[in-house]
C-alpha cells in the first residue's frame, strides 16, 4: 500500500511538472507573438486594415487579452516595477534596428523579413525566458 501511495504521489508530481512546463511554453509563445506583432507594427505609420488587424493581434497577446505574463506593480503606489510586455517591445524594436533586411529590389527595409529574423533568433528565445518569473500562476 505504501508503494502505491508513493507511486501515486510521484505520478502527480510528474504531471504537475509537465503541466507547469507546458504552461511556460504557452506563455513564452504568446509573449513572442506579442513581440512579433509590435515589431511589424512599429515601422508603419499609415492607417490601414492590415495595421488595424495586427494591432488587434498585439492586444490579444497582451495582459489585457490572453497574455499569461503579469505586470509587476507596487501595491501602494501602483507604480509599474516591471512590465514584460514593454520589455518585449523594447527588445524587438532594438533587435529590428540591428537586423539587416535591405531587399535587392528596393532600398528600404523589408519589415516582415526582419521581424521574422528577430522572432526566430536564439537571442529572442533567450530574452523571452528571462521573463518567465512574471508568468501568472
Total helical elements: 5
Order of helices and strands: HHEEHHH
* Structural shape: globular
Structural class: mainly alpha
Biggest sheet: strands, sense, closure? 2 strands, antiparallel
How big is the Rg? 19 Å
Amount of beta strand: under 5%
What fraction, in percent, of the residue positions are helical?
55-70%
The CATH class is identified as Mainly Alpha
> Low-confidence parts lasting 5 or more residues at pLDDT below 50?
4-18
What does this molecule look like?
- With 137 residues, the chain is mostly helical.
- The chain has a single domain, classed as Four Helix Bundle (Hemerythrin (Met), subunit A), CATH 1.20.120.1620.
- 62% of the residues lie in helices and 4% in strands.
- A two-stranded antiparallel ribbon has the order 1-2.
- A hairpin with a 6-residue loop joins strand 1 and strand 2.
- Helix 1 runs antiparallel to helix 2, helix 1 crosses helix 3 and helix 1 packs antiparallel against helix 4.
- The longest helix has 40 residues.
- It is globular.
- About 11% of the residues have low confidence.
Set down the secondary structure blueprint:
Elements: H1 2-41, H2 49-61, E1 72-73, E2 80-82, H3 84-98, H4 111-119, H5 122-129
Antiparallel strand pairs: 1-2
Helix pairs in contact: 1-2, 1-3, 1-4
Spell out the key features of this protein.
two-stranded antiparallel sheet, 2 strands, Four Helix Bundle (Hemerythrin (Met), subunit A), 5 helices, 137 residues, mainly alpha
Short description:
With 137 residues, the protein is mainly alpha-helical. Helix content is 62%, strand content 4%.
Amino acid at each position: 500500500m505504501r508503494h502505491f501511495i508513493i507511486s501515486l504521489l510521484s505520478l502527480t508530481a510528474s504531471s504537475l511538472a509537465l503541466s507547469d512546463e507546458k504552461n511556460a511554453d504557452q506563455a513564452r509563445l504568446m509573449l513572442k507573438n506579442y513581440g512579433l506583432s509590435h515589431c511589424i507594427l512599429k515601422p508603419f505609420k499609415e492607417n490601414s486594415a492590415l495595421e488595424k488587424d495586427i494591432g488587434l493581434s498585439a492586444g490579444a497577446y497582451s495582459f489585457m487579452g490572453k497574455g499569461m505574463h503579469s505586470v509587476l506593480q507596487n501595491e501602494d503606489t501602483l507604480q509599474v516595477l516591471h512590465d514584460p510586455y514593454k520589455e518585449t517591445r523594447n527588445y524587438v524594436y532594438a533587435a529590428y534596428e540591428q537586423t539587416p533586411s535591405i531587399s535587392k529590389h528596393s532600398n528600404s527595409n523589408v519589415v516582415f523579413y526582419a521581424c521574422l529574423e528577430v522572432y526566430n533568433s536564439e537571442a529572442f528565445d533567450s530574452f523571452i525566458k528571462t521573463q518567465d518569473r512574471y508568468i501568472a500562476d
